[in-house]
Amino acid sequence: MKTLKFLLLPALLSFTLIFTSATIGDGEKQTERINNSTDVLKDFSKIKEGIPHEMIAKYEGIVIIPDLINAGIGIGGKHGKGVAMVKLADGKWSDPVFVSMTGGSFGAQIGVQSIDLILVFRHKTTLTKIKNGDFTIGGDASAAAGPVGRSASANTDYKLDAEIYSYSRSKGLFAGISINGANLAIDKSSNKDYYGDSATSKDIFATSKSNKAAVKTLKGTLASM
Fold first, then answer.
1. Measured in whole angstroms, how far is the alpha carbon of residue 61 from the centre of its chain?
2. DSSP codes, 91-156
3. Can you give the residue ranges of every domain in the chain?
């Protein structure tokens, strides 16, 4: 019975993702993903022991994955889609680039769990160099659980040796998970659907000119953190 359940859960996850994608129009899918990412930022900002202001102020990149799905018994299928943004030379955040995350070990799980995930990057080049490829977290870039608290304090180590710091939340609470081994990739089809056929991740990361309401709200929410 356990073996059968292990085999069925990833299949159920794949079916759910395919069905959901098929029932939402292209433009609506991307707008919904941006709005969900904004909601994740707002939810994290309400948690007392949240992401320190200094992390957002000093670091140059961020990835937001709303409702990352972890399914299986022990280690099973993991998949999520979100957005990535980097800081420009003037301090503003770039337009969001659509990304996907698969695989990796998020801890032993039974059944299906939904997790909101935020990754803060020390250097924006870690994200911009992905371009139309992908990279493995923990392999191509080191990652660790991020410090928490509204501001830096004597109890918080801000030497920060890792390139990526992760923050995860499940049902309103922080959930310690490991993202090492996860693959982060550019979602090229979503970028083209939202920005046009000629759009590349390099171009999107380099600008902050989108006037779409969802994008403006996302940037404003991030800037307020």
1. 11
2. SPBPPPEEEEEEE-----EEEEEEEEEEEEES-THHHHTTTTSEEEBTTTB-EEEPP-SSS--TTS
3. 2-223
Verdict on whether the full-model pTM lies above 0.70: yes
| Contact in structure between 37 and 96 (CB atoms under 8 Å) | yes
pLDDT digit string, tens, across residues 50-69? 788 888 888 999 999 998 87
Owner of token pair 């998970």: 177
Distance CA 60, CA 10 (A): 35
Residues 212/38, Cβ–Cβ less than 8 Å: no
Residue 208 CB coordination number (10 Å): 18
Question: What does the pLDDT look like over 10-27, one tens digit per residue?
Answer: 444 444 444 444 434 457
Which residue in this structure is represented by tokens 């069925």? 8
Pairing outcome for strands 164-170 and 143-145: parallel
